[in-house]
């Protein structure tokens, strides 16, 4: 079993309630959003005077630090700080909330920025109502949670400094640790937010204030170390371990960080085993499946590539507007890193805007979000599913149209380097991926082969007839080249012959592939592949037949009616609209990858368009 902290950690016991009588205060909200500390001071003074006149005197408690009540079972000495049992009574009153989400004015200031005006605003608010630093909104987030999630490292440092200043009663260290260890509705501390953001500086500040902060895991959730390993932040994992050798390795479902490490790579696994070799003995909590240790989970680590055919396996609009306005260049990514809060904003189920776009297979939302390099690809929702996991679940099984949005989303995520979550592949496949219904799939193929078969036979018949009923006819027998086509010397005639030949060959190949697809004795996977080939060849033969028709008219009409010949070619070109659609869909996806991955992916766009044209 993974060793847990044997000491009694000062885990905060939080009591929070949200009253229903919320009354908006637009002046206070706007001042907080702008960082107008002078206006905040005036409004808070006015509000404080009115509240003081109506409120009764507070009852004395064992130890009181400003407006945050701290109960200490042991003397508040430096030696006792780490073992003291601390509880903070955190109550957000309706009068203190300035948003319908239960945010106090300090929540708003903390989430807006860390410039001088916002830091001064935080100082003003804390000076008037210091208890707001320990209050939570409806999601259970404290102002520290909000500041860390937004990436405002300066604000996090400032709020911690304000709590550390205290009033000289000796409870400063206890109070700071209690606030840092407060958990939101997901059971996560502010350290979890810093780890998820990948901000090493912010992580360093937090664990400097509380070296044992990484020992505080959420109930049946991911500890900070587990989260760092699952997101691939090995440097942060080392940073946490260097600060506290007794940190928590725990994760959801009885797993440990080692269960995640074996899915990430050898180096991460080796690193964790060097820290704690006993982790290999701890298995997952039983869920009706076999209970296995991490060493038994190293096979089949990633989901297989998904091909066609495949067997087996208000936040959104805001994020889309920001994604479309931000340039995804590396320099701009660094300059606007704080805006990732909006792009990676998670709802109560842990889904980001990109999660929702993937779930609904919406390429119009997916591509603008994906091209922005601030958008994280490996964040997990409350079910532990990354974008690639969710896409794999939503991808249909069996034979489907090649430009199916869900299939396109899955392939683009793979090409962008998205990773699977911490699931064991075999269990994930069993629980989430619908099995291929062979009888249903076979019936679908049988019904579809009739339509494709009729089309292929008709095209082959027309192409065969056109080969012997050439435009312009044949030369008379008394000619030295008697019996040959009269228009053979024209380039348009050569194109007609080649296009007609390709139409006949492709239709013939379509019929041949269809024979394998329609035979019940052939295994289902071969039938699926043959069906896809047949449909592809039929579409190609139809396009070639259209080209043969256009150039056949052109070679006949051009000498006497050039305008009519050009018009007929232009009209016939409408048959290539499906090709333009293919190029547009494939091109937009590859252009998105080019913007996200940078110049190293330039060849993908040209190669994808070339392959589409050849196909």
Describe this entry's structure for a reader.
This protein has four domains: 1-185, Serine Threonine Protein Phosphatase 5, Tetratricopeptide repeat; 195-282, Serine Threonine Protein Phosphatase 5, Tetratricopeptide repeat, CATH 1.25.40; 315-432, Ankyrin repeat-containing domain (Serine Threonine Protein Phosphatase 5, Tetratricopeptide repeat, Alpha Horseshoe); 440-560, no CATH class. Helix content is 54%, strand content 2%. The chain is built from 27 helices and four strands. The strands form two sheets. The chain has a two-stranded parallel sheet with strand order 1-4. A hairpin with a 2-residue loop joins strand 2 (64-65) and strand 3. Helix 2 (37-54) runs parallel beside helix 4. Mean pLDDT is 75; it is low at 1-19, 57-87, 286-293, 295-316 and 318-338.
Name of the CATH first level of the largest domain: Mainly Alpha
Major sheet size, sense and barrel closure: 2 strands, parallel
Termini Cα gap: 56 Å
**What is the CATH architecture term of the largest domain?**
Alpha Horseshoe
Q: Write down how many β-strands occur, each being a DSSP E stretch of 2 or more residues.
A: 4
Helix content: 40-55%
CATH topology grouping of the largest domain: Serine Threonine Protein Phosphatase 5, Tetratricopeptide repeat
Give the percentage of residues in beta strands: under 5%
Mean pLDDT: 75
| Unreliable spans | 1-19, 57-87, 286-293, 295-316, 318-338
Q: Within the largest sheet, what's the order of strands? A: 1-4
Question: Helix/strand-derived class?
Answer: mainly alpha
Counted up, domains total 4
Total count of helical runs of at least 4 residues: 27
Coarse shape: elongated
As a whole number of angstroms, the C-alpha radius of gyration is: 33 Å
């Amino acid at each position: 079993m993974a060793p847990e902290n044997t000491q009694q950690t000062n885990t905060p016991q939080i009591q929070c309630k949200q009253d229903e009588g919320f009354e908006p205060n637009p002046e206070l909200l706007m001042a907080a959003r702008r960082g107008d500390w002078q206006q905040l001071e005036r409004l808070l003074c006015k509000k404080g005077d009115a509240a003081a006149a109506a409120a009764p005197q507070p009852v004395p408690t064992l130890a009181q630090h400003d407006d945050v009540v701290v109960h200490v079972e042991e003397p508040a000495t430096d030696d006792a700080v780490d073992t003291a049992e601390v509880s903070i009574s955190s109550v957000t009153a309706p009068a203190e909330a300035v948003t319908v989400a239960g945010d106090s004015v300090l929540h708003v200031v903390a989430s807006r920025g860390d410039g001088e005006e916002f830091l001064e605003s935080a100082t003003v608010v804390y000076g008037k109502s210091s208890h707001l630093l320990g209050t939570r909104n409806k999601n259970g987030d404290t102002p520290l949670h909000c500041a860390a999630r937004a990436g405002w490292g300066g604000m996090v440092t400032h709020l911690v400094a304000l709590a550390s200043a205290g009033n000289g009663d000796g409870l400063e260290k206890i109070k700071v640790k209690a606030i840092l260890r407060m958990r939101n509705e997901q059971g996560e501390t502010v350290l979890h937010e810093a780890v998820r953001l990948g901000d090493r500086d912010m992580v360093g500040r937090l664990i400097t204030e509380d070296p044992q902060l990484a020992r505080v895991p959420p109930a049946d959730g991911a500890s900070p170390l587990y989260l760092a390993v699952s997101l691939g932040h090995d440097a942060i994992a080392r940073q946490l371990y260097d600060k506290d050798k007794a940190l928590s390795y725990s994760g959801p479902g009885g797993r440990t960080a080692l269960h995640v490490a074996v899915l990430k790579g050898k180096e991460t696994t080796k690193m964790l085993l060097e820290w704690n070799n006993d982790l290999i003995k701890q298995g997952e909590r039983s869920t009706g499946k076999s209970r296995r240790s991490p060493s038994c989970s190293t096979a089949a680590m990633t989901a297989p590539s998904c091909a066609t055919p495949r067997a087996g396996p208000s936040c959104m609009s805001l994020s889309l507007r920001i994604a479309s306005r931000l340039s995804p260049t590396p320099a701009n990514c660094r300059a606007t890193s704080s805006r990732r809060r909006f792009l990676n904003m998670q709802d109560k189920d842990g889904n980001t805007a990109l999660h929702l776009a993937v779930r609904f297979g919406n390429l119009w939302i997916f591509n603008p979000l994906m091209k922005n390099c601030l958008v994280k690809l490996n964040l997990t929702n409350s079910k532990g599913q990354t974008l690639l996991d969710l896409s794999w679940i939503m991808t249909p099984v069996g034979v489907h149209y090649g430009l199916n949005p869900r299939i396109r989303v899955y392939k683009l995520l793979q090409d962008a380097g998205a990773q699977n979550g911490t699931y064991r592949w075999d269990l994930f496949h069993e629980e989430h991926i619908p099995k291929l219904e062979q009888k249903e799939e076979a019936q679908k193929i049988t019904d579809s082969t009739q339509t494709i078969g009729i089309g292929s036979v008709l095209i082959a018949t027309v192409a065969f007839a056109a080969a012997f009923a050439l435009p312009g006819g044949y030369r008379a027998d008394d000619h030295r080249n008697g019996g040959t086509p009269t228009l053979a010397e024209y380039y348009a005639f050569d194109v007609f012959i080649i296009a007609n030949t390709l139409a006949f060959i492709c239709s013939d190949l379509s019929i041949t592939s269809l024979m394998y697809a329609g035979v019940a004795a052939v295994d289902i996977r071969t039938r699926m592949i043959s069906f896809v080939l047949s449909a592809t060849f039929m579409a190609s033969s139809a396009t070639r037949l259209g080209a043969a028709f256009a150039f056949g008219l052109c070679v006949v009409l051009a000498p006497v009616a050039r305008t009519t010949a050009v018009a007929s070619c232009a009209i016939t070109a409408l048959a290539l609209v499906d090709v333009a659609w293919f190029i547009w869909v494939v091109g937009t996806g590859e252009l998105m990858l080019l913007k996200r991955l940078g110049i190293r992916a330039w060849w993908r766009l040209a190669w994808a368009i070339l392959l589409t044209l050849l196909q």
